[in-house]
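Per your request, structure below.
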């Protein structure tokens, strides 16, 4: 049966895996509500079209050819924002010219790092909506710092463990803005301001839950003064579970998990972007071995400085752990976390990984690096108490933390709390739950936008 589609929405994701995934999930959510979905994406890290036959894709010349994109810096982000302007504008103009009655373009929804979209939307008089792919706690802490940076910078080494003024439970070491030599440089402040600004956008959509972050959202709402639609967790709200991976998933680890005892395996992954040095790789390897727990470890190509992949592991490591450990380059993470054999997640606390873990009732070991990760780690360990922080990357500490999570009474308490936390989030997704209601409100809101 052919479904009569409502208006179209154009989605503009940012090119990193952790940003592309929630945007595509939002696309599936909106498609299921009857919208036509067009994804205007960069050439770099283009999504796999065949996983999303329901979307129309449009590739934009991103100007990134020849640039080192192993860790996109400000230069590439600004260049991309500049380069994509004309391709998006031209595409939208063509679309609007060809528009038929009842098939109007309702709005553009863009990742907040694609801030060029605001200019294009304003020029074309199209409504735009910003997508926040992270927690309210992260944006709130960033805004607080941006309002009075002199209150926080520069700081002394001796202050690293001191509480950050007005930002409980964060400490100076958790500052979610790129810090160099205990201070922040003007270009980073400018970038953070661009990312937090919503320009002329008429609303923001969040991959978080109102019940979880209510007071932070209320305070942010006062600042932004446009409607907020919290629809999280996207990966459970999205009816289609198509893979959004840019790298190829190694599904053989699921058969390996099938052979492990229930609730016995530690899953280790630091997401799509973070990198460690060989010393940390080796300390992690020994921590895993000495903990005596089965583990599934993702070592992404390029994730160890100076090495292609896992060559820096101690000699004979894989033979030593044999059937007790499994290393893959990229895992089908959501399936892994949902597997009954998995008991814990050693993570960098990216927001997608955080939500995926909680929704499968998997408690966490938090090893954050930058941006929102330290904020997530502090909330997970200090406020929600569903994980333990790992602050010293030394083999004995790693071993102890793994054992604490997997074997101790404290570990059991953390597991109980993550089960409760999941229940509360699931409630938000029910018919009378906040995410469900907010989705209905968003559909009405978009449908009523002037076109
Ligand atoms: C980035 C930032 O680092 C993160 O802090 C921010 O919240 C989003 O953007 P990333 O580091 O990749 O993302 O972390 P995360 O948000 O956890 O996203 C990683 C995604 O890759 C998850 O959806 C996870 O399921 C997926 N993944 C990861 C796999 O599918 N397989 C893997 O082996 C590892």
């Amino acid at each position: 049966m052919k479904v009569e589609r409502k208006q179209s929405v154009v989605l503009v994701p940012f090119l990193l895996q952790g940003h592309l995934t929630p945007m595509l999930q939002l696309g599936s959510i909106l498609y299921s509500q009857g919208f036509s979905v067009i994804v205007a994406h960069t050439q770099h890290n283009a999504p796999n079209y065949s996983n999303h036959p329901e979307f129309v894709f449009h590739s934009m010349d991103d100007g990134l050819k020849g640039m080192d994109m192993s860790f996109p810096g400000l230069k590439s982000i600004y260049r991309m924002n500049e380069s994509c302007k004309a391709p998006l504008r031209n595409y939208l103009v063509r679309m609007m010219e060809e528009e038929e009655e009842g098939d109007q373009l309702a709005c553009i929804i863009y990742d907040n790092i694609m801030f060029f979209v605001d200019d294009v939307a304003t020029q074309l008089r199209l409504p735009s909506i910003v997508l926040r792919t992270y927690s309210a706690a992260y944006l709130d802490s960033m805004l607080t710092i941006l309002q009075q940076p002199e209150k926080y910078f520069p700081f002394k080494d001796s202050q690293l463990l001191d509480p950050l003024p007005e930002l409980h439970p964060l400490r100076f070491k958790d500052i979610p803005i790129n810090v160099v030599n205990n201070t922040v440089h003007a270009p980073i402040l400018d970038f953070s301001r661009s990312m937090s600004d919503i320009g002329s956008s008429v609303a923001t959509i969040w991959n978080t839950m109102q019940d979880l972050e209510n007071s932070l959202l209320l305070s942010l709402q006062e600042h932004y003064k446009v409607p907020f639609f919290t629809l999280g967790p996207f990966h459970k709200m999205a009816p289609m579970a198509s893979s959004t991976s840019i790298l190829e998933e190694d599904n053989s680890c699921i058969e390996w998990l099938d052979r492990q005892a229930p609730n016995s395996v530690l899953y280790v992954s630091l997401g799509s972007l973070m990198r460690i040095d060989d010393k940390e790789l080796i300390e992690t390897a020994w921590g895993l071995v000495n903990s005596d727990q089965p583990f599934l470890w993702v070592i992404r190509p390029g994730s160890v400085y100076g090495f292609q992949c896992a060559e820096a592991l101690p000699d004979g490591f894989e033979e030593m752990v044999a059937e007790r450990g499994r290393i893959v380059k990229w895992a089908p993470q959501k399936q892994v976390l949902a597997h009954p054999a998995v008991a814990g997640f050693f993570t960098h606390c990216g927001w997608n990984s955080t939500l995926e873990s909680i929704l499968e009732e998997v408690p966490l070991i938090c090893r954050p690096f930058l941006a929102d990760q330290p904020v997530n780690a502090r909330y997970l360990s200090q406020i929600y108490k569903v994980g333990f922080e790992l602050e010293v990357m030394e083999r004995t500490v790693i071993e102890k933390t793994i054992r604490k999570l997997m074997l101790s009474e404290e570990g059991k308490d953390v597991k109980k709390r993550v089960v409760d936390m999941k229940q509360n989030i699931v409630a938000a997704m029910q018919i009378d739950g906040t995410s469900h209601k907010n989705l209905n409100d968003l559909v009405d809101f978009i449908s009523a936008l002037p076109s």
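The first strand starts at residue 8 and ends at 12.

Regards,
D.
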